[in-house]
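Blinded run. Sample ID left blank on purpose so nobody reads anything into the name before looking at the predicted structure. Input follows.
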Amino acid sequence: MGLPRGPTTLEPVKEFVVYTGLRILLFVASLGVVLGIWVPLAGEANLLWAFVIALVVSGVGSYFLLNGPREALAQRVDARARAATSRFEEMRAKEDQD
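Blinded prediction complete.
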C-alpha cells in the first residue's frame, strides 16, 4: 500500500506556517541583537525592556522584510474566504429551490 499522492496535510496552512516562523525568527534575532548590544554596554540587561525593544524592532522589521510572505498569506486567506462564500451561496441557493 503506497502513500497517498497530492497535497500534504500542511498545504492549506503553508503560508501561515512560513510567515509565523519568519516572524518568530525575526523576533529571536532582534532579541539577540538587543541583548548583544545592551549587555556589553551596561554589564547586565533588564529582560522586560529587552523583550519590549525586540518586539518593536521585529514588528517594524517584519513590515518591510516580510512583505512577500505576508502577501502570500493574505492571498491564501482571501482565496479560502471566497471559496467558503461560494459554497455557502451554493447551499443557500439549493435550499431556496427546495
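Unblinding after everyone has recorded impressions. Residues 12-97 form one domain.
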